[in-house]
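Just wondering, does anyone understand what follows?

——
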Amino acid sequence: MDLVLDRVRLTYPDGDGVLVAVDDVSLTVPSGTTTALLGPSGAGKSSLLAVAATLTPPTAGVVRVGPDVVSAPLDADPGTEPGDAAGRRARRRARRAADRAAALRRERIGLVFQQPQLVASLTVLEQLELMSHLRGRSPASRRAHALALLDAVGVADRAGRRPEHLSGGQRQRVAIARALMNDPEVLLVDEPTSALDHERGVQVVELVVRLARELDAATLLVSHDEATLDPVDARVHLADGRLVPAPAAA
């Protein structure tokens, strides 16, 4: 299903005013395609990805996966007074919204962080099995699916190794496989090449694009490195929280 961001805005309190992190962004990522999100540091890329991932609710606008709204503004200020009934109700609504968002992430959204964040004490295979355990799959099903994904990303021969015995590129491949364990409809990838040299960076982007097509996942990939992005289907540029035209070539 398509990933749709519809007039998304995200602000934070800043003294007497507000800091605008994302400003009226509308974007559609069709299923099975990869869109690269580019922009300078501080442009709002990570903030926009957090909203798309349901990690942060938008101040305005909505995020949809297909026809379903998966992230929208909270409908009331949670309040600060412990005895305030309206505040208590708002806090309960906020907790329920957070629980729904967590369930959506488990079931429909795969996340690949800038740092792979693998569990040091687990083998490569166990990293993936743990993710699928949270979804309630049987042990045999978890293992078969994990091995198939490790083969797809090219690290099946590392299944029994722990992260300390993997290269940076291998760790990133494991993180991508882990994000795909629950068959997400949306894949969100944050700076996957930042710690890799150019050749390995290109390989990782090619891998993400190929898997997005094979698994029909709408994929949004944040990057600072345009030189690795030839395989992607589309590119959009963010500056000061807004989508802007691509900068002119030097």
